[in-house]
Amino acid sequence: MKSILLTILCIIAGCLTSALQAQVVSLPYYSGFDSAAERNGWAVYRLGDAALGNWSIANINSFSAPSCISHDYSPSSGANVVDDWYVSPGFLLPSGGMLDSVRYAFSGFSVPTTGDTIGVYLIIGNQDPAAASGIIELAEFRDAEYQADNVYRLLSGIALPPTNDLAFIGLRYRNAEASSRWLYVRFDNIAVRESTTSIHRPDNGKPKVIYPNPTNDEVTILHQQTGGTVFFYDQTGIPLCQYALSNSETSTTLSLSQWPQGIYRLVIQQQNQIESVSLSRM
Fold first, then answer.
1. pLDDT under 50 in the chain at which residues?
2. What is the mean pLDDT of the chain?
């Protein structure tokens, strides 16, 4: 059926699932953790023992002032396996992308050994690593890659595979003897961009892909192919819901009657194409 009621779609699609509750950011994306805006959307996930050490904002020894993120050990606390993740807000990579920059520095009197992991990952489908549909290791620091000399080094040029799900950058600190093994790590200046060779984005000179706009109820989305997904965000970038596009037509009509007046953003994703459109609800 061409007309799809928003309330029904929210139930069918699992509106506001945990994967979409994470903040979504546009690419290119950069965070030096130097302001509330640059820290916004990052989240800590503790999959091991709760311990004194955890991910935190450090206002000393950053690569670019004033801040970086750091994780320390838990001295003489009796904690065993600490497995803490610090995960970025989500972004879309339908054609893949590139991790352009991660600055890292290590110190302490220990190095990672059996059971330990200091690494950078691409998390697929859910910001929580325990609920993710996939986790891809981008870099792991051990042996020669773990130099406890308090000197910042650069990880760059890491290709990110294409995915139709939300993607996140995850920093993992796993210490199998967190009470006695002193692994102190810092990360800074994380930059991600998308591959744009196959992405189409509309500009003001191209035909409208949604009408009427503004609207007080229904809108019709024109899409070049059948099938796909439209992601619905508020004006701050918080995801609200996702909807399936028609599998038999190249247009889909949605009712917005339950949403309050305001400005929204629709991201229409079909195979290797993305359209991003602003919508006014009167």
1. 1-20, 197-207
2. 83
* Pair (238, 181) in one structural domain: no
User: Would you say the pTM of this structure is higher than 0.85?
Assistant: no
Residues 171 and 204 in one domain: no
DSSP string, the chain: --EE-HHHHHHHTTTT-HHHHS-B--SSEEE-S-SHHHHTT-EEEE-S---S---EEESSS-SSSS-EEEE---TTS----EEEEEEPPBEEETT-EEEEEEEEEEESS----TT-EEEEEEEES-SSGGG-SEEEEEEE--GGG---SS--EEE--EEE--EEEEEEEEEEEEETTTTT---EEEEEEEEEEE--TT-----TTSPPSEESSSBSSEEEEE-SSS--EEEEEETTS-EEEEEEPPSS-SEEEEE-TTSPSEEEEEEEEETTEEEEEEEEE-
Domain count, the chain: 2
